[in-house]
Design a protein that fits this description.
This protein is of the alpha+beta class. It contains ten helices and six strands. Helix content is 62%, strand content 19%. The protein starts with a helix and ends with a helix.
Length: 356
């Protein structure tokens, strides 16, 4: 029986590797072409290629669930087409044992996904975004780069942050309790030293209300201390998209958003999507197995591949649909992410039961 397990496991694993090579290769080419289209005098071809290479592990991470689905289906399809599955079942190999044999390479995919998503892709994505931002702009302006962050009555925006604790293109807007602007600071950069921030090349505008109206005073300073309870590690979370953050970083950012009185559902949604990705991968593999023993038992290889791709896309659409509905109607993020996974799991179990 162990030889049967090893044979099924190796067949499925090789199919997964083949699928990953094809999908990742196509994704890499399309990403390169897309990024090269955005090059200019400052953001050159070498910068674009470096950005693609640094962000490529995240693309691989995103492809892993689809890889597990298609690889399982194709690997079992090869065995089914040559009647090897029939021979195995005739020799006394139960369906449950075949399911477990296929799940072993799927578990490997889950572990690789967790390692990539938690430890590998976040720092690489951060470095890619910092390099691209710094290479694309040499002016300190309020742009669409970076993100907004609130700290009490202060609103912060910066273009990029380096892992060493250096901010580029800092803009700070301070308001009083009556929501009136009291101060605006624009700095070329900021450095984190000895537990505090030091702004450099500063333009500070103070606003005061008088009988003559709103008065402003401009100060140009080489340096200015900045008292804010934000560490470089937390600010790094702002420069990349939420889908590039690790599971732990998403939780930290969602918790801080709640502390600041902001809506954290979007980050909680991404948190649960990443946290439950191993379960989603296992469910997709289960569905692939149920297709082989159920409605696709006599189908051709092309029909099976088409079905796998179609179901994978349907699953992604369902995830996005439930996430959007959850955000709009303020549903529980955990349930919104879990629902399409449970629906797919129930489908897989039902098809396996019917095929027995």
């Amino acid at each position: 029986m162990r030889k049967f397990d090893a044979y099924i496991r190796n067949s499925v694993l090789m199919a997964m590797l083949l699928v990953l090579l094809v999908l990742a290769g196509l994704d890499f080419l399309f990403t390169v072409f897309d990024e090269l289209g955005g090059t200019n005098e400052r953001y050159q071809t070498s910068d674009a290629l470096q950005y693609v290479l640094l962000t490529f592990p995240r693309h691989v991470y995103d492809l892993l669930p689809m890889t597990a689905l298609m690889g399982s289906l194709i690997g079992l399809s090869v065995l089914a087409s040559s009647n090897e599955l029939v021979v195995m079942q005739a020799a006394g190999v139960k369906t449950g044992r075949i399911v477990w044999a296929v799940m072993k390479p799927a578990i490997l995919v889950m572990v690789i996904g967790l390692i990539l998503g938690e430890f590998v892709t976040p720092p690489l994505d951060l470095r890619a975004e910092v390099n691209k931002t710094v290479a694309s702009s040499d002016e300190v302006i309020l742009s669409n780069l970076g993100r907004w962050q609130r700290d009490g009555n202060d609103f912060l925006h910066f273009n990029a942050i380096e892992p060493e604790g250096v901010l580029h293109g800092v803009s700070i807007y301070s308001f009083n309790d009556e929501q009136k602007l009291t101060e605006n600071i624009i700095a070329e950069s900021a450095r984190y030293q000895d537990g505090s921030w030091l702004l450099e090349d500063v333009r500070r505008t103070l606003f005061t209300q008088s009988e003559e109206g709103l008065l402003s005073e401009l100060q140009v300073l080489p340096e200015l201390g900045w008292d804010v309870d934000l560490s470089p590690e937390l600010l790094q979370l702002m420069i990349v998209d939420s889908d590039s953050l690790s599971i732990s970083d998403l939780y930290r950012y969602a918790r801080r958003s709640k502390e600041q009185g902001q809506d954290a559902n979007a980050y909680l949604m991404d948190f649960w999507e990443k946290a439950l990705q191993p379960l989603a991968t296992a469910v997709l593999v289960l569905v692939a197995i149920s297709f082989i023993f159920g409605p696709l038992r006599e189908a051709t290889m092309g029909s099976r591949v088409f079905t796998a791709v179609s179901f994978g896309l349907l699953f992604i659409i369902l995830q996005q649909l439930f996430s959007t509905v959850g955000l709009v109607y303020q549903l529980n993020p955990f349930l919104a992410v879990l629902t399409p996974i449970l629906m797919s799991g129930c489908l897989g179990v039902y098809l396996l039961k019917v095929s027995e």
